[in-house]
């Protein structure tokens, strides 16, 4: 097979890139190791920045997002029993949209199918070659047969555990990492949310988050020890622990029910630099991970794809490489802003027993400042709704 761009990974980054390239008349194939059903079944992020919504519009896939997505003008923080509303709209003029990553993925997959885009699911042993020259290749195995794709560029959109980043010589890569000493236990359930808006909770027993997917489907998280096994948490234990971290009004409105999905995600900040090696360009989780506290992971994948699609479109229209050369630097500037913000929000809201009473007092002072200074509130709000790109 010969294509202009070989995209590795059919997560939001790969699918969004595929759609933008298709609209620009650039020929691409998407190679994904899992089945389509498996990719669609992964419950992950739920909050889209306005810029990402605009990208979905540009990609021509925002119809259902506008019909079913919930526009949120703010969210609440419940800190040590005190509630404070972050008025995102009032502070920034912008909003966020609650729309699950599963729905984003489904909309993009359907658009690709109706456009007749080439996709290979259940591609085994994907490997990337010769990206330091002018003729990169990708090899994979499908139904017991070996295949090779010749291309001009490889887009590494294969997530944190993908094959693209590890294929770069270690000497060409600088990694920066922080691993947090806890995880998030998440539950999805067909019960109405406790509140119209998200509630981020900082409690003596640990962090909690009340989120949602729709008016009838809730997504809740609680901070848990890294060693915990998801099988050891019954639904009843989860609901009981969540309720203990809420305040009376939220507890009174909490509706429990059987979990549709339950999983534990470790929290980590990670950046690999640069994001381009010759004709291999990394985008999304393949290059960086943020803890979910700031709701930035999916949105960063979208901003990378924005810069990457622009660079490839410029290359094929005019032969220029200015945007390709600028790609890594542009992405990383925004990535580090989101890494900082996610790290900061994680530090503000989680229980860090090893930081002792000093650490808790600093968190309290930070919350006090956030709630009493419009400048501090605006800073949080500006980052939460997403920095411009
Ligand atoms: P991915 O969605 O990971 O997609 C990568 C794709 O590449 C996958 O389909 C994978 O199967 C495929 N792939 C991997 N290796 C290969 C290979 N060798 N060959 C071919 N294909 C391959 N963000 C939030 O904002 N809020 C959250 O609550 C949240 N929860 C999360 C929970 C978990 C468990 C994880 C892992 C992430 C979570 N995130 C969350 C982050 C967010 O979901 C990601 O930032 C987002 O999925 C990034 O999209 P992506 O396309 O870059 O990567
Ligand atoms: C979610 O709904 O899954 C979600 C929302 C906000 C976050 C993280 C996850 O910060």
Q: Multimeric state of these chains?
A: single chain
Biggest β-sheet description: 8 strands, mixed
**Class of secondary structure makeup:** alpha+beta
The low-confidence runs, each spanning 5 or more residues with pLDDT under 50, are none
Query: What coarse outline follows from CA principal-axis ratios?
Result: globular
Helical residue percent? 25-40%
The number of helices is 13
**SS strand fraction:** 25-35%
| Extended strand count | 20
Strand order of the largest sheet: 6-5-14-15-16-13-17-20
Q: Span between N and C termini? A: 34 Å
Determine the mean pLDDT. 98
From the alpha-carbon coordinates, what is the Rg to the nearest angstrom?
21 Å
Identify every distinct bound molecule in the structure, by name, code or SMILES: flavin-adenine dinucleotide, P-hydroxybenzoic acid
In short:
By secondary structure, the chain is an alpha+beta fold. A hairpin with a 7-residue loop joins strand 9 (about 125-130) and strand 10 (about 135-140). The chain is built from 13 helices and 20 strands.
Q: What can you see in these coordinates?
A:
This protein is of the alpha+beta class and 389 residues long. It is built from 13 helices and 20 strands. Strands 6-5-14-15-16-13-17-20 form an 8-stranded mixed sheet. It has a 6-stranded mixed sheet with strand order 8-2-1-12-19-18, with helices on one face. A 3-stranded antiparallel sheet has the order 3-7-4. Helix 10 (297-318) runs antiparallel to helix 11 (322-349). The longest helix has 28 residues, at 322-349. It is globular and about 60 Å long. The two termini are 34 Å apart. The model has no long low-confidence stretch (mean pLDDT 98). P-hydroxybenzoic acid (PHB) is lined by residues 45-47, 198, 209, 211, 219, 292-293, 295.
